[in-house]
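Predict structure. Chain length: 190.
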Amino acid sequence: MRINVRFAGSGGQGVILASVLLSKAYGLGENYNIAQTQSYGPEARGGACKAEVVISDDEIDYMKVNKADVFVALNQVGYDKYIDTVKDDAVVLINSTLVESDRPNVYKIQATKRAEDMGKPFVVNIIALGALTRLMPKVHYPAVEEEIIEQFPASIASVNLDAYKMGYDIMDEDLKNLGYKTGFGDARQW
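Prediction complete.
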């Protein structure tokens, strides 16, 4: 099994943090081999940003993602820049508050709207991570949850846990409405 994941967005959206949390959940929580890389423009906030995670049950000999099996886009610029680098049958998750897509079979979550409704605009990435966790194979909800608890001070961990649960629950409901018993990722042969 090898899963190539790419996150895209802008600096300040938590793209890198979401990829690190996913990496730790798979690596420390689920005992897979992991490689995580990131790149961003010279601007700290607002510039283009991407992060990649390679998950494998074998040794990882190449840690870059050429064609993504999973793509998460938090803004339109990131989506437009990288959508042509995903596989035809990739799991694509977009922040539908900021991203429009005419690609079939795209999973959508209004991460920015939901974060703003919570009064916590900084949890956009965690809401998307919750939805992604529901779609991904072989990562369990508690593994990501534990990484969130580890990453954040107690004063903001609970807000992030609420955001994570919200994203997960929204995607779970969407999958049920689509008639899936499990996430799209569970049905694939990785």
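Summary: The helical segments are 15-29, 76-82, 111-118, 124-135, 141-151, 154-177, 184-187.
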